Amino acid sequence: MTAGLPADGGGDRPVRIEWLGAAVGAAGILTVAWACLTEWGGVVHGHPAYAVALALTVVVSALALARTLRRRARRGGWRAVARIALALLGLGGIAFLAWARPHTAVEPALTAAQTDHAVVVTESATRIVLEPVAGGDALGVLFQPGALVDPRAYAAVLRPLAEAGHTVVIAKQPFGIAFLATGALEDASTSFPGIRGWVVAGHSLGGTVAALEADAADEDPVAPAIGLLLYASYPAGDISGSLNAPAMSISGSRDGLATPERITASKADLPPGTEFIQIDGASHAQFGAYGAQSGDNTPQISNEDARAQISQASLRFVNNLQP
Fold it and tell me: Is the pTM of this model over 0.85?
């Protein structure tokens, strides 16, 4: 018997990859725990797709750990290759869940997302609705949040629109990705048949999707998109000749993501007559209430000042439209 080879003969050592499965299982459970402990509000109040994915990850990770601990070392071959491939696939899924961890809303958005004497707030799996207590008019506002942002984060900046008599629908996006919620306007139109015209709005990536939705629905015979409102955002392409609705772009001079240069460049892609408003000193994250954001600049005005200016400009734009 040759020294160093397995006692059962042959030249192949057992390929001990069982601990790879254990590592992946542990990583899955730790990632879920981290997401829940740090951003629980965003998990609970976001679209259920992320919460379901977290739950499934815990189950699969626990099963992988249990199976690994029971299994004896096995030889190589195609089974080993398959197990390695599954482990890599699992790591990819875990990495996606870590990336998709939401930015949870903070005050004053949390208070603004509560019903009071002026506004009724209701929440479902796919949207948050702010409706005037006295009943809304025929103009609605559909809002697409920024990427990975808790939809409640926009309640404070949008609440003045509801207080002025307009129904506001904030979409919940699967995994916080606006491109996975492109049917939000159609769903809102079906759910609120009394709305005869919609202002489609959005922040950051949500604004990009809002531009697509508005462009597609501006000639809807039932409840058309009658306005496009962009928060620190711009269209993905040229809609200057196809969008038959007024538009407003509100941005911040201290935005580190939708920079002033990018907003200026977007003027060619928006219809002639689009109103551009720059909030001096405002940053990207000040269009919502979810804390600081990676890649953004430090604002030079308070959150209260930025929010007041954004709400005031939005209200003026919406109030000037007729459904």
Answer: yes
